[in-house]
Each structure stands twice: as C-alpha cells, then as structure tokens.
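S., here's the first fold you wanted:
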Amino acid sequence: MKIVNRIALILTIIGGINWGLIGLFKFDLVAWIFSGQDSVMSRIIYSLVGIAALWCISLLFNNRMIED
C-alpha cells in the first residue's frame, strides 16, 4: 500500500503545482505539454490527479500515519 500512497501523493503534488501555475500565471502546464485541455492525454492526467486526491483523503483518517 505504501507505493499507492506515494504515487497518489506525487500526482496530487503535480496537480497542486499545475493549479498554482494556473492561478498565478494563467498557464496550464498539463494542457501545454499534451496539446490542450481537450486532448485524451490531458484528460487522463486530470482524471488521475483527481483520483489521487480522493485517495489522499483516506490518508487523513489512517491511524498508522498519525502514529509514525
């Protein structure tokens, strides 16, 4: 499970950086890399980041993380 948590955290960080760029500079890095927001790859990345964020919510309630 640790690898899933790590991947979810990495994807959430990528999403956070992308949103920061959008907020500060109106620049969507994911869309720029994959030729627009409507491209299949961009939508896959956005979906994976969203799923990762949902997974990270479960980490908030994981008692083992609090004890470590």
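And the second, which I think is the more interesting of the pair:
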Amino acid sequence: MTGRAIVITSGKGGVGKTTTSASLGAALALRGKRVLVVDGDIGLRNLDVIMGLENRIVFNLVDVAKGLCKPQQAIIKSKRSNNLYLLPASQTDDKDVISQKEMAEMLNKYKQEFDFILVDSPAGIEQGFRNACSGADEALIVTTPEVAAIRDADRVIGLLAAQGIEPRLIINRVDRDMVRRGDMLSPDDVCDILGIDQIGMVFRDDDIVVAANNGEPVVYNKESKAGDAFMKIADRVTGVDVPLETVDMRNSLWARLGRRLSAA
C-alpha cells in the first residue's frame, strides 16, 4: 500500500501553511502514522526552523530530485518522534530549479515508505505552487477569515480542480469573540463562499507563536487549544468521525458580505 501525498496550500502568504504542515505532521505521527513533511518553498525554507531541525540539514529536496543523493540521505528524523521526518528545501536555488515531473517522481519514491507525505506549498500560484501540487493525491487549503485570504484561496481551489485534486478547508486564526460581534467572517460564511468542505478550524492561540519560536510543533503542548484542533484534524484526515467545532453567529454585516462575495 502506498502513502497519501497531501499538498497544504493557500495562495496567500502568512495564513499559517507552514505551521499547519508541521503541526498536522506531528499530530499524525502521534496517531502512529509514518509521516514525511516536505518543505516545498525552495529558496525560502522555514519548516526546518518550525520543527527545530535547522542544524541537522545536509542534503535537501533539490539534491534528491536531481539524483545527487539517495532519498534516505536527505530526510531528517524529528527529535520528538520516530514516526516524523522532514525533507528540507534548498535555501540557495530558484523555485524553478526542478520540474513538476521530477517532483512527482520524488514523492512517488517516498510514498513507498510513508503513510502520509505533507507538502508545504510556497505562497503564490507560480512554479513553486505547481511543483508542490505535483504528485499530490489531495489538498488542504489553509485560509484565515479575511477577504484577501479567501479570495486567494478561491483562486487556488480553481487551479486544483483543473488538476483533478480535491481540496478540503482548514480555517485558521478564528477569533470566537470577533465572530460573535460580527467583526470577523464566521467559519460557515467562509465555507459558503469557497464552496468546499471544512476539515477543521483552529482558534487564534498564542501558544502557536511560542511553539514556533521553540522549534516544537504546538501539538506537543497538551494545554494548547490549537494543538487540540490539529489533533482533531489529524483524526479526520485518517477517517475518524470527529464533530467539527462551531461558533455561534447570526446574520452579521460580515456574514452578509460573505454571501455577496459568494454570489459575485
């Protein structure tokens, strides 16, 4: 049985793709799955820092794709789990240094060893995004409840559909109080606008910043609400039926704006 390759993308930068990739990878590993997290952002790698593995890098994704090292030589085992590994990006190459075919062939090799391969896509919809989608079996779209982020996510959903990749949605940095006051789009509004299924919602949580600065995914903090949210997302990814979180929200100005955007 081969593993599942999941691209984690958004279009817009700064919405939490890298944090999601590291946190979801660690959560799946805690559930007993063998996981490879791939940094697809050639030239601007960050996953190694979020996972606290920046000092262990010898080879990288480009080296594997170009046959300069064996696939096993480039992956780095997590300090916290025997089930979690990182394939870092190159920090000195351009995003177009490898082709979509090379990326897909590389991921197919790793699928023989891992249950899940999570590819952290760079921002934008250029070559880096196309490479990150190569070989992916499915996609997770990360967005925040902001109009600009949602617009970019909508564009990415269309591009994924053209490649036959089915996306599901993670809504990040939801502020429950702002939603209740009508100052932030509700998760239901975001889903209505984008027209795809939600797989999880992550509330705004300062523990994520602390975890990133410490080089440890937030799921290792058992007191973190965000960590618990990522564990639930991991369960849903593996097919466990876990109810989605909800936020009470009725008929706000932002909700009406969401419906107008959906109809546009």
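Why I say that: The longest strand covers residues 167-174. Residues 147-162 form the longest helix (16 residues).

Talk tomorrow,
H.
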